[in-house]
Amino acid sequence: MNSPSAPELPGSVSSAVAHDALAHIADRVGATASFLCAVHCAALPFVLTVLPALGLGFLADHRFERVFIACASCLALVALIRGYRRHHIASPLRIAVPGLILLWVGAWIFDAESSLALHATLVTIGGCSVAYAHMRNLRLTHSYGACCASKAGTAA
Predict the structure, then answer these.
(1) Max Cα separation, the chain?
(2) Measured between alpha carbons, how far is 106 from 138 in angstroms, rounded to an integer?
(3) Which residues of 17-35 are buried (b: 16+ CB within 10 A; e: fewer)?
(4) What is the DSSP letter of 7?
(5) 67-78 as b/e: b if 16+ CB within 10 A
(6) Tens digit of pLDDT for each residue in 27-86?
(7) What is the mean pLDDT of the chain?
(8) Which of 26, 49, 81, 130 is deepest in the core (most CB within 10 A)?
């Protein structure tokens, strides 16, 4: 019998629910950030002259872009590895890794000063790939949870 003052065990149901909620939030934030990164990079050649006038010149700064890519990469790897450990399907990681490579190559090797078109192409494709990997991971995690919940309900 559970009492309200009983401590929760690390493997308890509420701990698992909190873990799932955190994983879903991380995937949603990652997918949104990756998609916004791709839109930013695709539109950058067209809005370079407008950003400073709007007070958004920092969005065209290489340092901002590189910090954003580094943070998005960490978030993607953490969220996708956690998802893999749950559903054991590697396709989101197989999609994300080439996308991350394209992002890093586009941001560090072909920066906007050396080749704007190549830079925009690489980081746009990379950002879209990472966003798709997050959405795939979210869908797999969701379907895994529904599958396991229905099995647990029939076993009880």
Answers:
(1) 67
(2) 26
(3) eeeeeebbebbeebbebbb
(4) P
(5) ebbeebbebbbe
(6) 777 777 777 767 766 666 666 667 676 777 676 677 888 888 898 899 889 889 989 998
(7) 76
(8) 130
Supply the pLDDT for residue 1.
Answer: 47
- Measured distance CA(56)–CA(73) in Å, rounded: 23
Q: Say how far apart CA 96 and CA 89 lie, in whole Å.
A: 13
Tokens found for residue 55: 């007070």
Q: Which residue has the tokens 């958004």?
A: 56
Instruction: Name the token pair of 23.
Output: 């994983």
Q: Classify burial at 104, counting beta carbons within 10 Å of its beta carbon; exposed 0-12, middle 13-18, buried 19 or more.
A: middle
How many whole angstroms separate alpha carbon 128 and alpha carbon 38? 6
Query: What are 120's two structure tokens?
Result: 């925009």
Task: Take residue 58 and report the two structure tokens written for it.
Answer: 């920092």
User: Under 8 Å CB-to-CB from 49, ≥6 apart: which residues?
Assistant: none
Chain length of the chain = 156
Structure tokens at 43: 């539109």
Q: What is the sign, positive or negative, of the torsion defined by CA atoms of 25, 33, 52, 43?
A: negative
